[in-house]
Amino acid sequence: MNNPGNISRSYYSASTPGGDLFFDGGRGLHFSEICGSSVGLFVPLVGVKTELIGQPLSPTEFIGDLHAETWQSLENRRYKDMFTGSVLHRPRPYYYRVFPEAESQEAGGAFALALVDPRAKEHALMSSRLEALAIGLLTGESGALIGPNRVPWTVTHGYNRFRLRTNRLRLYAWTMADDFEPLFERVQAGKHEELNETPVMTFNDGSLPLDVSLCEHTATILRLVDEHRIFERIPALHDVARRYLRTCDRSESIGTRLLEVVTAFEVIFGRVSGREQQATMSRLRTLLRETDVELLDAQHFRAFRNAIAHGRTRESSVDTAFSQAALGVRLFIARAILATANHGADLPTSPQSFNALKDLIFAD
Hints:
The chain is α+β, with helices and mostly antiparallel strands. It folds into 2 domains: 11-203, no CATH class; 233-361, no CATH class. Helix content is 46%, strand content 17%. It has 13 helices and 13 strands. The strands form 4 sheets. A 6-stranded antiparallel beta sheet has the order 4-5-6-2-7-8. α5 (121-140) packs across α8 (235-248), α8 packs antiparallel against α9 and α11 packs across α12. It is globular and about 75 Å long. It starts with 6 loop residues before the first strand and ends with a helix.
């Protein structure tokens, strides 16, 4: 058999037909150069589309595209071999956090391990922080976002990498439908050349565009949730926020997404049948009146709820009411966070706090 000679690979797309994505003229930092001797946390934000790099959310938290070389430093050889082309073609936005340096090497290592232990308090606090991050992004801009607690985290300490021991979705070969562009791999072996289209799957939704304004909004939400301990003080609001995140998460089944939005909607606004119907629609109208949305009548929402309750997810009533129900939940969560920050001292303790918060928001 003849020796084909050196084998080389290059990647190109329709927007760079004559170029090679391996050579972009820049160099990315290794994760150890970003974090130094501190513990670092890197979480991919699947669905976000941005040109920002390292935009600060707080003194220790940042968001934006990672350079491909930084991504390679975080990943093992198997995934680099499989997905380098996709990441070169479309750099993945990440949330990353550099924690204050620990008192000792041993303390830093123990903290890093706790972040990837689902049973640890440190992990639970970080998970809640990521939920607040996602709420900030989704209340500030329309678009889809895979929940940051559905994807793998990479925790670093020095040159060590730690990962969660749970089943997480990497989704390196996935993108939102509006961000799809075919990517090709050129393999050359001696005089022989072969072209292959790399497999890319698409979610049927639009990307979440991240700009400086959305970063500022998200930073404000993170600060308010943290300073006023909002999710701790009002567990029912935290539960509604989690349901809304699953509603927006395209990696969840359509049945799950619809069930979550219906449940969150009724917790906030009330039932859409019987004697509660008029009050429910009045609350929804209060939140949507400052938008350009032409509110559907109660019959549409009742048909929507009944269809979901009986598993009929393809009925026309589902499509027409889903967006308004999700918008109502989204607006409520944003206003509830601001109201808690401004009037938290006047709210009773849980479990009465959530109903008092609703009374405050729907008072006018």
